[in-house]
Amino acid sequence: MINQAVLATCDAADGVKDGLLADPRRCHFDPSTLMCATNTSENCLTPAQVEAVKKIYAPVKTQSGTLIFPSFEPGSELGWGPMTGGPEPSRVAAGTFAYLVYKNPKWDWRTFDAERDTALADSTDIINATKPDLSAFQSRGGKLLMYHGWADPAIPPGNTVNFYNGVLAKMGKNQGDWVRLFMVPGMEHCGGGPGTDQFNKMAVLERWREEGAAPSQIVAAHVTNGQVSMTRPLCPYPQVAVYKGTGSTNDAGNFSCKTQ
User: What pLDDT shows up at residue 127?
Assistant: First the structure.
C-alpha cells in the first residue's frame, strides 16, 4: 500500500510511468497522507505506523548531526518485510555487532546505541570499508565497476553514492577512466525487484580492462517468466536514462543517458 502511494506520487516525474523511479531522491513523498482519518484499516496507517515509515525514510545521524548511515529510498518498500517485519533485528545486523564488533556471542542487541556502537565499529578495519583513497588499485591498472539498486532494502543505496563521491573528492573529479558507478532504478539487493537487474558485468569489465572501452552505458534487462520483458540503459552516475519521447518504453534503444 505504501509502495503504491509512492508510485502514484512520483512515478511519472521522470517522464515515464513504468513503476520505476529514475532517481528516488527526487521523490518527496509524505507518509502522513496515508494516516487513517478515523478507524484503522489495511488501507491506511496509524500515527505510530506513519512515524515508523518516516524513520525508515530518514538517515541515521549522531546527536551533533553527523551522518552515520543514509536512509532507504522511496520505491524500496516491497523489500522492507525481511528487514523490519520481526520483533528482533536481522541476524546479519545483530551478528555483525555480536561477533565482529564486540566479539561476544551473548551481546544483547537491546543495549545498542547508534552513536557509541557505530563509532566502535568504524574504529575496526574489519567493519570500516569506506576509505576513499584507491590510488594503489588505480596505479595497478584496476577498473572498478560499481552498481547499486535504488530499491535496495538491505543496504541504503545512498551509502554507495556517498562512497563514490568520497573517492572523487579524495582523488579528483575526473576518474571515469577507471571507476564508474551505475545506479539501477527498481533493483533490490544485488538483484530482484521491478527494475532491469540482469546485465553481463564481467563482459563490461573485460572490455574495459582489455580494450580500454569504459562503459558509457550498460544495457540491462528485466526478465518475467523466463522472457525479457524490458530493457533499459544503465547510466554512469550521475546520469539517468531519459525517454526520447517515441517508441516502446520497454526498449532500451528509446532512452539516452543524460545528466539532469
Answer: 78
46 falls within a domain: no
Q: Based on the fold, state whether residues 119 and 140 are members of the same structural domain.
A: no
Residue 227, Cβ neighbours under 10 Å: how many? 8
d(CA 124, CA 120): 7
Chain centroid to Cα 83, Å, comes to: 15
Residues 123 and 185 in one domain: no
8 A C-beta contact, residue 195 and residue 150: yes
Number of domains in the chain: 2
Question: Do residues 157 and 183 make contact, with C-beta atoms less than 8 angstroms apart?
Answer: yes
Instruction: Provide the domain limits for residue 115.
Output: 87-129
pLDDT score at 132? 94
The span from the CA of 21 to the CA of 17, in Å, is 9
Q: Are residues 234 and 119 in the same domain?
A: no
| pLDDT tens sequence across 179-235 | 999 999 999 999 999 999 999 999 999 999 999 999 999 999 999 999 999 999 999
Grid cell, residue 65, equals: 548531526
Closest to 205 (Cα-Cα) out of 182, 237, 222: 182
| Domain-ending residue, one of 129, 161, 179 | 129
- Pairwise pLDDT comparison (83 vs 171), residue with the higher score: 171
Per the CB < 8 A criterion, the answer to whether 61 and 11 are in contact is no
Mean pLDDT, all residues of the chain: 94
